[in-house]
Amino acid sequence: MVPTSYYVFLSAFIFAIGLYGVLTRENAVVILMCVELMLNAGNLNLIAFAAHHGEAAGIAGQTFVLFVLAIAAAEVAVGLGVLVLVYRRYGTVNIRKPSYMRW
Amino acid sequence: MSETALVETAAVLIPTVPLAAFAVILLGALLPKERGFGGTTSTVAAIASVAASLVLSALVFFETWTRELDFVAVQAVWVDAIGDLPDLTVGILVDPLSALMALIVSVVAFLVLVFSKYYMNDEGETGLPRYYAALALFSGSMLAFVFSSNLLMAFIFFELVGLCSYLLIGFWYDRPSAASAAKKAFLVTRFGDYFFLVGVAAVFAGFGTFAFHGDDSLFVAAQSALEADETVLGVSAQTAVTVVALLILGGVIGKSAQFPLHTWLPDAMEGPTPVSALIHAATMVAAGVYLVARTFELYALSPTALLVVAFVGGFTALFAATMALVMDDIKQVLAYSTISQYGYMMLALGAGGYTAAVFHLMNHAFFKALLFLGAGSVIIALHHKQDMWEMGGLRRRMPVTYWTFLAGSLALAGIAPFSGYWSKDEALLAAFRNAANEPLLYIPFALGMVAVVVTGFYTFRMVALTFHGEPRTDAARDASEGGISVYVPLGVLGVLAVVAGFVNAAPLGIHALADFLGASAFYEAAAAGAGYVDGFEVSYALSVAALVLAVAGSAAGFKLYVGADEPLKTRGGATTRVLEKKYYLDHFQVWLAEDVTYRFSKLLNMFDLDIVDGVVNGTSRVSLGSGDAIRRMQTGVVAHYAAIIILGTVALVFIVGLVGGWF
Amino acid sequence: MRWITLLVVLPLVAAAATLVASKFDREYAKYVAFVGSLLPLGVSVYVWQVPFDRAANALTHPDEAQLVERVPWFEIAGYEVEYFVALDGVSMPLVLLTTLLVSAAIMSAWNAIDDAQASFYALVLFLEAALIGVFVALDFFLFYVFWEAVLIPMYFLIAVWGGPRRKYAAMKFFVYTNVASLIMFIGVVALYFNIGGPGVADLSMPSLTQAIAEGHLTGAFGLSADALRLAAFAALFIGFAVKVPVVPFHTWLPDAHVEAPTPVSVILAGVLLKMGTYALLRFNFTMLPETAAALAAPIALVGVVSVIYGALLAMAQTDLKRIVAYSSISSMGYVVVGLVAYTQYAVGGATFQMVSHGLISGLMFMVVGVVYHETHTREVGEISGLAHRAPLVAGVFVAAAFAYMGLPGMSGFPAELFVFMGGMASATIPYAPVVVAAAMFGIVLVAGYLLFAMQRTLFGEFRVGRADAATDGGEGVTDASLSEAVPMLVLLAAILALGIQPDIAYDMIEASTASVAELVEGGV
Questions:
Q1: Which of B296, B555, C129, C287 could bond C11 through an S-S bridge, CB–CB 3.0 to 4.6 Å?
Q2: Are 3 or more Cβ–Cβ pairs between B and A shorter than 8 Å?
Q3: Is B157 touching C (CB cutoff 8 A)?
Q4: B160 contacts B168 by C-beta, under 8 angstroms
Q5: Could you report the per-residue pLDDT of C284-302, keeping only the tens digit for each?
Q6: Predicted ipTM?
Q7: Which CATH number fits domain A4-101: 1.10.287.3510, 1.50.10.20, 1.10.10.970, 3.30.70.860?
Q8: pLDDT tens digit sequence for B421-446
Q9: What is the phi/psi pair of residue B289, to 5°?
Q10: Angstroms from B617 CA to nearest CA on chain A
């Protein structure tokens, strides 16, 4: 059996990739994808620990993951909707362009 | 008390009727023009009301005289205090002093109103309701002041008299000079009234009563505080009495135009001439001296206060007289002579000469009203020319005015047997006799004696320039006199100026006024409180000396100026200039008001805007500024926010770990 | 009959009616608002004349409070919050003042306000309700709610209908007074939370007064009971001093007055400032008398400085509204001096001065408003000889100015006289005669600047505009219209009535202030 720590390291790795993408990329679609990566890294963690604790923890971990998946889907839907509007307004999906929320 | 019911009713009505006339005229003026009061209605209302007061005053005077009344006729609670605090009351005090003064005031006011009809009503004047309303208020307030039964009520009407002078001096408000003079009159007297009000408050706090009359009067309270040597308001009773007396004197100095608050009075000549007559003779200016007479028993308790009164009076008598020497405007000469004459009254009071002061107050009221009305007659005849150098030779054109004016002038100059002589002589006598006990009184006495010469000089300079010599202008050549409403007031006052002096011609052994006033009680009060003599023995040497001085001054003035022409006026050097500039006292006061106070207030304004408000605005600026600095973090780049969130989270985890002991 | 509740609710009903009526015709708003404001006026006069009896102070003698309504509301942190309202001789005259001034202000707004009339009148009526609430509330929570509620309409009234710098003035007013309210709130809460012994079960002001008087205040936060009392007193004093305003917390007032539209200035000067002095009397001087007496010297000094400083600043102004604003500061200084003197006449006179100054400053602002409406300027140097064209305005101006100067026969005179008489006799103020005499010098200064302003604006040749301007700007200047004249004359009549017969109001005032004066030993 693969030790749980492997999953955790993998999850951390994926999370870091996602984070790096969110912070550095300017294309909103890529950022959205990176956010998905981070979410799924979290999911991986949840699953891994659920398996690690086995019967004692019940199915709470798996349930969480299902919730997160659902929310992620919703988030993508909303996010993409926003992106479409942003694109219509500014003709680009570069997130540095809309600066209305700045001072 | 039923036998005094008539007097009571009359005494209440005396001030009330003119005050009611004021209210009626005022309300009438608020009505729309077509239905409102015109000049005629208001003239009639005012004259009728004062005529009623005159009749009633005569009645009260007669009753007081024959039955020796001395009582508080009506006492009403004005403010009902709870607990053992004294109520504030208003009341009508009928005694010889108030009865006499009310008669003087109503006689002069009535004659002035009659004369006003001639002086004001023929000029297409639009403000007549305002004029007569203010005159009625003036007379009513003065009469109420005269009958005041306590210090507070006296202050109230003292102030209202000041208001009326403001309204009347500034009657022709479109003239900037009139508006300015009105302001000055009110402001300067207000400055004096400030001290009076402090005195009123101090009397309440110190003695707990305002009453003038009876066993709980403030005089009795002060007397008993002195005897018990109590501490009043944190100081000894003697100091407190002196301070209170001097504070009240502040109001007197303002209203009676004594040095150094006399500057408003000459400017007040901007008002219509009948108003000047009223202000000078019977109302506003008289109020000050009357107040000292009324509170004489308080002054008698403090030798210091009496001395101050005498010094102020003596100095003012001479000081104002010298300025009258160089004035060209006939009304200005009269104005300074008023100040000077009230100085004599103050001198008399300060020297314990109660009768002399009241006597001179009465005589002065008649002859000064006469002189002002005479001057008014001249001014109207010359179409509002007031410069004496534009007059001359009027005695042939205006005989009635001339002869009556001459009678007034002789009275003013103090030449026997005209009224002014007797009272002035008595004032000087008081100072002279008491100087034996209090040598410092020789100084105001000497000042008063010198002023006799000066008075004669300026009075006959005025007579000579106005009525004698040749007419200097066409207007003076064509002058003519008015009708009945001129002759009646002038005639009545002229007769009074001649005969009034005989009611108390002390050198002839007549003491009717002194007896009527019950003066010996006041002499005894001054004797007990200040060590003054308790009666004044006639000094024939003094009487003759005063007469000689007055005649000498008058003759010199007449001789120098009769037939004089322009050049005389410019002869003077530095002295004349100082006199014409009124000793620079006006300049000083204007400087004090404008350059010192106003500048200071401007500076203070800058301080307020820059420093006080600066701190307030500074607080907001700091808040806004720091907010402005911090909001720079809102770059609008989502990645930055995310980075900050992550760094924050990491830092938090790190800190929690550090504190929680994970590492 | 729940008269007080009626008094608070009627203006709100009138406000709603105004808004509804304006939907039919925008011209209806002014008339509906005016008639609506007459209702609370009528009720307050009726209450004063019929069910109200002169009574001792509601805080020191809660049994004697008039027309009490007391309903439990909710409980918070173990304290019962109540709807607790009542009247006594301090609040009754102020309620009357409020209802009268609001009616007068609404009528005077007929000409002055053109934009969004319905909202304007509705806000004014809402303000009236809050103001009445402040004066009648005897539960602290309720008091604070009303106290803060006053700010909301006032902010909008200045910020929307004001002059060119209205945003600045409104914001300054709001922030300044709101910060002060918070400081005050902390002070009161510190008192409530540190009552030891039996404690207080509710947030009512009489029970707090009683608990403190009985010595149940304990220390807290490392402070002794006395230190806590001092701190609370300071917090309360600063909180209320801003509202009064007392120098140096006064700078919001001239700005607010200059920018506010005339009817709002009338209410601001006439009633809002009295909230500060009313609360000073209720909280500082009734609840904490020992502290007040101990601090009498600095407080009296602050009062004297306010009088003199305000008067001197008024002298330096050229805008008529600023002149009146600064002289309000000066007049309110007398109230502070009177309150701290702790004598019957002084405390009563201070309360009387609140009413008197409310009427006089209201009248003064109305006159200035009419002058501005006619000539479109308030600069002293730009108007001259107004008496020719507008004799009524000039006459009222003169009367109001003399009232301000404390001329006998006007309400200002008894007010100031009582303060001076009582102040001189004070046992709390050290060297009282000298201190009070210094404050009294204000009567000379006030005469100085008002006479000067009158001379320049009313008298002389008629002219509007700068002296060197080629054209005469005064073509259309006429006298006050009926809707401007009536409120002015009504206020003037009230001023005269109180001046000639002060007992109309003073009778009930002294009954309620005497027990305050008795809280400190000594004095007449």
A1: C129
A2: yes
A3: yes
A4: no
A5: 999 998 889 999 999 999 9
A6: 0.92
A7: 1.10.287.3510
A8: 888 888 888 888 888 888 888 898 99
A9: -65, -40
A10: 23
